[in-house]
Amino acid sequence: MFTPREVECHVPTAPVIRSNVPGSFAWSVFHERHPELVQRVLRALPYGPGERARVEQLLAESTSGVLEPLPESAQDGAQWLAWGEGLWGRPWGEAPFLWAESYFYRRLLEATGYFGAGAWRGVDPFAPFKAAELGGASVDEELAALADLDGLQAEVLVASALWGNRADLSFQITAGVAGAGASELLVDEGALLWAELKHRPGGLVCLVADNAGRELLPDLVLIDFLLRQGLAGRVVLYVKPQPYFVSDATMDDVLATVERLRNAQPDAAREVGRRLWQAMRGGELDVRTHAFFCAPLPYREMPADLAAEFGAAVMTVMKGDLNYRRLVGDQLWPPTTAFGEVAGCFPSSVAALRTLKSDVIVGMDEATVSRLDGSDEAWRTSGRHAVVQVSVRT
């Protein structure tokens, strides 16, 4: 178990997002996305009757039942019991959306036997999806683009890492083909990110990964660039300690992606893979994890040991929608709320690279919000818009 650090930092308040409003995005995740996801999981691997029954039971409970705690035998049962204090026995929709969604994926692992003593122990239920994407034609195209790696600008590499965030199976289940339609960068503070790195070259840069496969690939290319250019002397790449939110990256996914690079056809891609392999061996690239990355909590409640790791960084780069929700708080902020006002508690300077796939958003100007609100598009959740936002810690 771990306890949140004690930090003196003023954070404004806003209503917490919940999934008990029919027709809302959060409601659709539980009543539309999860049912489709469950069926895909059960088709992807030959789970037996016991596992299948437990998964179906979880789906029924999460859509029309009440929150039940983990079995007493669960290794993290006591921790979740504490996190859910006041929620047990209440409908799932009454729990904070971030909490309930995190708990759904923890329960899914329990149902499929990931933590059990049987043969399914340690088997990633999302592995077939990740493997198919990593071996697919879209990754071949991205590897081919690395043939001109030396000619790629830093801004291009950030854009690739940013828009790669749409390579998210759980999002694509309900949103259709990722990248369909026009895309727009709503906030671009990339210049501030590069200025800060150039101002303090050779330091520690942390990157908190989101998805595996086609998203992790440009993340690793970006890390290679930071090390080659001397903008970072060392990079710590944080991944999840266990499968989480369908396509979230684990250490297995990092190794598979580096190996994909090492065996790629373009010489430039193979060289990236070779350099990353050597950087991991030499410690310039350190892949780490922490139990907190699968906790249903915002980053301002991270434990002291993890905060100390981030606090040593020149910059932390947060990838993806889930990290954004945890960084600013999964709340209904006025969109014009300053990014630094809600992300300023983070122990280092922090940059968020995020395509919008959920309701929470801050750091917008009023004119852009009015324009988008006046359109017919569900712009907060369509995945067609993105932000690069930076908070510099002084």
Task: Describe the protein's architecture and organization.
Keywords: Hydrolase, Manganese, Metal-binding. Belongs to the damage-control phosphatase family. Sugar phosphate phosphatase III subfamily. One of its GO terms (molecular function) is phosphatase activity. One of its GO terms (biological process) is DNA damage response. The structure is a single chain. This protein is α/β, with parallel strands linked by helices. α1 crosses α8, α7 runs antiparallel to α10 and α11 packs across α12. It contains 16 helices and 7 strands. It is globular. α10 links the parallel β2 and β3. The protein folds into 2 domains: 99 residues, no CATH class; 264 residues, Uncharacterised protein PF01937, DUF89, domain 3 (Rossmann fold), CATH 3.40.50.
Which features characterize this protein?
394 residues, alpha/beta, Rossmann fold, 2 domains, 7-stranded mixed beta sheet, 16 helices, 7 strands, globular, ARMT1, metal ion binding, phosphatase activity, hydrolase, ARMT1-like_metal-bd
